[in-house]
Amino acid sequence: MKNRALALLLALIFLLLPIKAAQAASNGILNGKCTLDWDNFCRYPSRLSDNNYKTGVDLKNGDAGAIYWTADVGVDIVYWEWMVPPEECRYTFYDENRLAISTSIRYREGDRGYLEVPEGAFGVSMEVISGNDGDLSRLTEWHVYSKENLPENIHLWEEAPKKCDIMLVVAHSDDELVMMGGIIPTYAGERGLRVQVVYCYVPEENRHSEALNGLWHSGQRTLPVIFHIPEKDLEKNRYRFEERITREIRRFQPEVVITHDIDGEYGNPGHVLVSRNCREACEAAADGSKFPESAQAYGTWQVKKVYVHLYDQNQIVMDFDSPLTAFGGKTAFELAQEAYTYHKSQRGDWLNQLKSNKYDCRKYGLYFTTVGEDVQKKDFLENIPAECISDYVAPAPTPTPEMTATPEPTAEPTAEPTPAPTDTPAPTAAPTDTPVPTATATAEPTAAPSPAPVGGSGVTVVLGVFVSLAVGLTAAIGVLLLRKKR
């Protein structure tokens, strides 16, 4: 009897194995055509390619595995899903000789991840460096695809930004749609800004996939942060939300943080706890003495504005009813309603009432600000300096004309200027009517100094001298003749 039961069990297993393989093939997964080097990593490889979040493998620090393929398989995408993501994980690609060609380290990346296969790669390994909060990590899917066979439910999430514009801190997955519906379609989908969602408490495993599908439909393209609360902390109600939120604020450096109503909307104790811890974390993030481990890892950060849902002071009312170009004319509220339909485990009537009742998803109050109170009261980013927002484009500087040295002109030798000829003759000494004085006999004549010539030429001067000598000589001869006669 026992042998028959054992035989039936083995037969059932052998029947199920082809079904598992067929399911993987129908999903476009190529693991079955690859070589899996998963010793001490996963004893049952099918658990990581069955698209079932309930199956998986727990990994400790140092655990590693690899997938290898040949050129005819055509692998383009390496994809994985974590239920409990590690703090740090290393991925290495290999060539056809299984020699490493590139290595990348992902740090706190979220529940889903992927890598595009570089040219010349024929294998990839995954190694857990540090588990979640130093504890075990849990991997639920790890497989490879070609781009042509990538399923529609596999979203290729972008890497988390180093800095975001708005951080949305909520208690549970779907709160960002129910209590604050419209924020993600407006800011992430329509405006293309960096919105980071932080889920503080998502205990049910199936709600992870619901949350990701809803965010993707809303226009979000970066993964949310989902806090993992170890069982030992849950038993003691030790959530450490303030410490965890402070770490994420320092990591993502948001300009604006938005969170739950102080009273938890309808009195939900989880909402109350998250709202209080979030407001405390916004203050702690700027103080290096608070939670020094994350301050050392990321530095401190001063949030410029904090909004609280339904807060009655400095209240603003958001427009979630105008058509959005990015969504073909649908409104932000309509997108929130559609995204909520992915949360199949939750009530289906929440979003039908949240624009008209006391939990209005459009109403928020400015709880804290370093940039002044809102005036227009319709934009969470009002008063935030433009250069601090991710879509800022610095104006092109006006080009300054370059100063070019002007060459000095080379002096060309020129002839001395010749004075222009004139018709006016050079002046000559004018004749005078004054008689030449007769020399008076003196014992010895003294030559009078010659007057400086006034006008005239050198010839005139010489002529004057000869005339003077002739006159003097004539006078001397006359004196001698008179003496002889006597």
Structural account:
This protein has 486 residues and is α+β, with helices and mostly antiparallel strands. It folds into 2 domains: 21-149, Galactose-binding domain-like (Jelly Rolls), CATH 2.60.120.260; 166-388, Rossmann fold (3-Layer(aba) Sandwich). The chain is 26% helix and 18% strand. The chain contains 10 helices and 16 strands. The chain has helices at 2-26, 175-178, 183-190, 206-218, 231-235, 241-252, 269-284, 292-298, 332-340, 458-485; strands at 35-37, 57-59, 64-68, 77-84, 88-94, 100-107, 112-116, 123-130, 137-145, 166-170, 195-199, 225-226, 256-259, 305-309, 315-317, 363-369. Strands 12-11-10-13-14-16-15 form a 7-stranded mixed β-sheet, sandwiched between helices. Strands 1-3-8-5-6 form a 5-stranded antiparallel β-sheet, with no helix packed on it. A 4-stranded antiparallel β-sheet has the order 2-9-4-7, with no helix packed on it. A hairpin with a 5-residue loop joins strand 5 and strand 6 (100-107). Helix 3 (183-190) packs across helix 9, helix 4 (206-218) runs antiparallel to helix 9 and helix 6 crosses helix 7. It is globular.
